[in-house]
Specification:
With 222 residues, the chain is of the alpha/beta class. Helices cover 53% and strands 12% of the residues. The protein has helices spanning 14-25, 29-42, 45-66, 71-91, 113-124, 138-148, 164-176, 194-200, 208-213, and strands at 100-106, 128-136, 152-156, 182-186. The chain has a 4-stranded parallel sheet, with helices on both faces. Helix 4 packs parallel to helix 5 (113-124). It is globular, with a radius of gyration of 17 Å.
């Protein structure tokens, strides 16, 4: 099942989204990838994420849930979109002295596109990005952040909604890392717990526009 990331304030590019969905329904993966690559050239980064990728993933998710997209179609589309997002993130990391952001999902969260989109946004804002993958416990995320000297951990929690155990995992990550490492969490599964995040010093923007605001490059403190 694809994720449905929290959207931003940029209006959807209906024409591109409709064309991409048509390619997906017909399993024209080459045409889909060409459309995404062309859009990456023609659109500004925040427009690409917020007006194309977010609404496209939302529509794919709705189509899968409603039975309009067979599992094979959704899987093929997900592979193509994942490959594109990984390419977008990696090709925009040019400064090896830039601070490092780790992206992924906490334990119990399998849907990774929100974290991949966060990586694209962070890369365009001047960060180096490494994707940890989905469903990692707090201890392992903290271990990676400490070993790699990360300055930020950006988590996505979309579905299911974080339960008490999931909330504890995120709060435990905050406890394990020093305060000069930003922790950011977003997605529909994290949204109901914003008060808890605020109390713990965890940033919880509700849109990708808000996430960009959290990406000011920090001073390199040890």
């Amino acid at each position: 099942m694809p994720i449905q990331p929290v959207g931003g304030h940029v209006a959807p590019d209906t024409e591109r989204v409709t064309l991409a969905l048509d390619h997906i329904k017909q399993m024209r993966t080459d045409a889909l990838e060409q459309l995404l690559m062309r859009s990456a050239v023609e659109m500004r980064p925040h427009e690409l994420v917020e007006s194309l990728m977010v609404p496209l993933l939302q529509e794919v998710g709705r189509g899968w849930q409603a039975g309009r997209l067979p599992p094979s179609t959704e899987h093929i589309a997900s592979v193509a979109i994942r490959r594109f997002l990984e390419w977008m993130s990696s090709t925009n990391q040019k400064d090896q002295a830039a601070p490092l952001a780790l992206t992924g999902t906490p334990a119990g969260q399998q849907h990774e596109f929100g974290a991949l989109l966060a990586g694209v946004v962070a890369a365009y804002e001047g960060w180096r990005v490494r994707f940890l993958g989905p469903d990692l416990p707090a201890l392992e995320i903290a271990r990676a952040a400490q070993t790699m000297n990360a300055r930020m951990v950006a988590l996505s929690a979309v579905h299911p909604r974080l339960d008490a155990k999931g909330v504890h995992e995120v709060l435990e990550l905050r406890r394990l890392l020093t305060t000069n490492v930003k922790i950011v969490i977003g997605g529909a599964g994290a949204e109901p717990h914003r008060d808890r995040w605020q109390e713990a010093g965890i940033l919880s923007p509700s849109t990708f526009s808000g996430f960009r605001d959290s990406l000011q490059i920090p001073e390199n403190k040890s």
